[in-house]
Amino acid sequence: MNARKLFSIFIVLTGLGAVPASAQKQTLAIDAVKPLPSLAGAAAKDGRAASLQRLVEGMDAQLMDRLNATRKFDLVSHSDLKEVINKQSNDASGNVDVGDANAAKIGKLAGTKYILVTTIDQFTDRTEELTLPASGKVLTKRNLGFGVVAKVYDTTTGKLLESANHSVALDQAGAALLGVVTSGDQYEGALREMTAQMSEWVANHIVDVVFPAKVLAKTDKQVTINRGEGSGIQRGEEWRVFAVGKELIDPDTKESLGKEEILAGRVRITDVLPKFSKAEVIEDLGIEAGAILRLQK
Predict the structure, then answer these.
(1) Identical fold between 3-210 and 213-295
(2) For 3-210, which CATH class?
């Protein structure tokens, strides 16, 4: 099923509506992670179906955890939607006191502003035999890797806000996991590390698109930023600071392209705290509270 059909079905099932402008948090629906049909078919044909399914399950769990850690969204898991609807149907069956304030109500699902659709489009799980020249001993090495395409839709308009792809492989999953990985604990550890890395990347990318980092306060040469632990921000990183200008309209399509961003300076992260971070100003061209930040790459 393609992303457009999936998106349409989701709207029909949940009766999505716009979130009031006054809400401080937006609601994000997380669709169940799925591999491309051709990828799933190839994995089944060459005996990698179980490994691919384990990867899908790991991504489902990790995505929810990482997005929750950003503290930017109220989350609705589409992969749990069937269970939610079943609970509502049961509570409306007459077996539950309808006057109970905790009883689930048919059709009462959280209004959802955004939906995240994540597709696995690359998957590597192959073994190689390595012969050590000195001893002639044969080792078996398992190479693991995968890639995803993450798409974010605005449900109030049906428009695609962002589409980005990212990949991760075993040699990116930490020094402790390098070398020979065959099965068992080593394989599970590698898989957990890779799905955690991928989920953190997806979560932080979405937050940067919907809620760019902002300056909360500035005192002398120090600024406070609304990014803390779980957001991927790191000590020592340099971020560019931008003042927000007028709205930009495409002259051909008349579509809003967002607001103009005017460079206002640069900062370096010094402390990462649970809910916010501190940074030192290394260039000040007019940094003020409310300015947005972009990671210097």
Answers:
(1) no
(2) alpha beta
- In whole angstroms, give the CA distance from residue 28 to residue 77: 8
Return the pLDDT at 260.
Answer: 85
Residue 41 pLDDT exceeds 70:
yes
Q: Which fold has domain 213-295?
A: Thrombin, subunit H (2.40.10)
pLDDT band at 2 (very low <50, low <70, confident <90, very high): very low
User: pLDDT-based confidence at 15, cuts 50/70/90?
Assistant: very low
d(CA 215, CA 32): 34
Strand partners of residue 217: 224
Question: What pLDDT, in 10s, does the model give residues 195-231?
Answer: 999 999 999 889 888 888 999 999 999 999 999 887 8
Residues 6+ apart with CB under 8 A from 190: 144, 170, 173, 177, 181
Task: Write the CA distances from 141 to 132, 144, 175, 181, 206, integer angstroms.
Answer: 12, 10, 16, 6, 35
What is the C-alpha to C-alpha distance for residues 269 and 279, in angstroms, rounded to an integer? 4
Q: What residues does each domain of the chain span? A: 3-210, 213-295
